[in-house]
Amino acid sequence: MIAYVAGISTIVWLPQLPSLVILPVLIVPLLFRRRIPVMFSAFLLGVVWSLLWCHWQLGHRLEASSLKSDWELTGVVKGLPQQQGRQLRFVLQVEEIKPLNGAQLSSGLPRLVRLSWFNAPFEIKPEQRLALTVRLKAPHGYANPYGFDYELWLLAEHIDATGYVRAWRSTESAEGCFVDCLRERIAGVVKTRYGPEAPLVLAITLGIRDLFDDTQWQRLRATGTIHLAVISGLHLGFIVGLCLVLVKGLSYVVAPRYLRPAGMLLTCAAAFGYMQLAGAGLPTQRAFIMVAVFLLAQWRLWHIDLWSRWWLAMAIVLTASPVATHQAGFWLSFGAVAVLLWFAGYRLRDLVGWRVQSGIFIGMTPLLIWMFGGFSLVAPLVNLIAIPLMAIILTVTVVDMVLAGLGVSVLLPIVEGVIACFWWLIEFAAGFQVDIWRPPALSMQYLLLALVGSFLLIQPRGVPLRWLGVLLWLPMLLGGVKDVRESGFEAWVFDVGQGTAVLVKAGGRHVLYDTGPGFPNGHSAYRHTLEPYFDAMRIQKLDRLILSHDDLDHTGGHAALLAQMGVEHGTTGSIKVADQYGYQNCKSGDVWRWGDAEFAVLAGSGGGTDNNSSCVLRVDDGVCSLLLPGDIDQDMERALVPGLAPVTWLLASHHGSKTATGSEFLQASQPEVVLFSAGYANHFRHPAKEVVQRVEQQGVEHRLTASEGALHLISDGATCRIESWRGVRRRFWSGY
Q1: What kind and span of H or E run contains 491?
Q2: Phi, psi of 526 (to 5 degrees)
């Protein structure tokens, strides 16, 4: 099993998939497996399966060349649609697809597509058959360091395209709908029955987490209890434990010889039903597989030790979804179970109470720091109370929902009371720690040392060198990756879609130029793009924030940024923003120096229009230089031309709009590389063909965040270089 898991993992971690042409080379040894070691055969089997699975998944995905193409789709709604303001999101299982306006389907039939529908004219139900005209694009997401990999999530969920509804042609009522329709009906009952407590009940019974507000998520995160509000192996464990207790009680009435196999099967069935009720997402599937493997091995009295069951569960999980090793939940769930098995191996009574909580805290903390940038110091104490409390909540809630079907409400006050106690506990604990504690940014070497340290610390008493683990933790807690540049400067042009956000580092300080776009529903790209980077790099204060002007695609993340960190000095080209937040107006001639880099404001505030009031910033260390012109048009560019010096990197004005980045501006600035910060398949069609042609006519290289992800500009005081995030972190599912 270990060799099989290694074979699967080998393929999914390659930057590019090998061709299927090599399959005969891999399969031939398997035909003569008696002549080769079993371990090698298992490894090859894992490689073959992983290779076939990955090619099968990619073979259904819409091609990247089908950019903003129109299609007629007929399909069935899967899962529960999500309503966010005027926007409805749902997943459609495709039955028929017809290209429109010259579009071509060069891949296999897409299986699932994720669609948005603004102002839908009627309510969408699970299993409803729809005939729609849609605009689709290939799976695509932001590509930034430490950011969420949306493309990986789509691949794991078998979603082969995304898009939005342009028109609907017909609809048919749902037929044969059971699980999803049952979930929808239960969700309606829960919202009516439990009122303010409904968000938690929906989360732990149906896996619906949309009703939690930002404050609740923040408190759960700060106290290390998010896993209690998101269905996981712990909740399945509660269900299994409840079933086993019932089976044990019945054993006094029914002969145990007959009850044992039936009880185990009924327990597995209950776990399976709970998984389906929770939406059967990948985390719940993973948890069910682990539970089923351990239960069935016990039922059949198979002589399989606990660790072999652990490896078997991992092999089955990876067979179902080989890319799971790229997901944090995989490592956290199997890591937590590994800690439990370790305790069970030398003293069974340690599986409950303080010892197991401290063991999981010690064992999982390095992974939490590596994946999420920090951990909760109060988590062990809070979970010691919160886990049993959640078991009570889940038990009484399930029983109350069953009784509700009979018109009995005797348990309703108890449900409301225990949920109120849970939130009081979380709020009380969050008063001691308002956010997770963030040690210095962690390197791989420090992570490995800390994991070894954790292994030593969870050893039983009397093991030599046990407390050496504390010393191995110190580099993780005190050391880390430096996020300062003492010589030269560096800049990140983040991939924020249709907007701008550029972080410049010099002299150990940070300046952020714009915060990325916001959206009509009140959310912004900041949460998914800049915030993960700031968290990972432990940037808790900006030395300077520059909001070029007052457009939503430049200031949309401003509120989210202020909620996360402090700003020492704010500057903006917008008089309105300056008055609202007490920032200074950009003034031509403003100059400051950090280390080797000089920052100079060339224009801003009072350019006639809002776009032409943009702060125009130049960064220069004598070797490399960067020009950030905001959204100025060609008229403003011409006004700057007389005093403009050549630059190494130029961020194209107005995201590549045809009204900006004119020929005179290009000739005067003489950039070596022009950078376009624009959204993938954006409806403005930025960068405009005219602008790209002007850049190419000047013989200048151009780079695009939409296709290359975040662009990293580095001046080390001697050379100038540029790296793209998709190029540095290549993944086979990203076709760019």
Answers
A1: strand 489-493
A2: -55, -45
With beta carbons less than 8 A apart as the criterion, state whether 394 and 235 touch. yes
**Which long-range CB contacts under 8 A does 38-45 form with residues at least 24 apart?**
38/3, 39/3, 40/3, 42/1, 42/3, 42/4, 42/7, 43/3, 43/4, 43/6, 43/7, 43/10, 44/7, 45/4, 45/7
- Report which residue type is found at 68: K
Ranges for all domains in the chain classified under CATH 2.40.50: 69-170
CATH level 3 topology of 489-728: Metallo-beta-lactamase; Chain A (3.60.15)
CATH code 3.60.15.10 region(s) in the chain: 489-728
User: Which token pair is 289?
Assistant: 């597989």
* CA 341 to centroid of chain Cα atoms: 29
State the Cα–Cα distance between residues 614 and 605, nearest whole angstrom. 7
Distances (CA, A) of 164 to 70, 71, 137: 10, 11, 9
d(C-alpha 218, C-alpha 565), whole Å: 15
Say whether pLDDT at 484 is over 90.
no
Which residues make Cβ contacts (< 8 Å) with residue 701, sequence separation at least 6? 672, 673, 674
Whether CATH 1.10.10 fits 69-170: no
Any idea how long the chain is? 736
pTM: 0.91
Rounded distance between C-alpha atoms, residue 54 and residue 656, angstroms: 36
- Cβ(578)–Cβ(550) below 8 Å: no
Give, rounded to a whole angstrom, the gap between the first and last alpha carbons of the chain: 34
Question: Cα dist. 250→296, 383, 391 in Å?
Answer: 20, 31, 21
**Calpha distance 87→626 (Å, rounded):** 39
Backbone angles phi, psi at 702, to 5 degrees: -135, 145
Q: Is the peptide bond before 687 cis (omega within 30 degrees of 0)?
A: yes
pLDDT category at 350 given cuts 50, 70, 90 is: low
* 581-626 pLDDT per residue, tens: 999 999 999 999 999 999 999 998 876 788 999 999 999 999 999 9
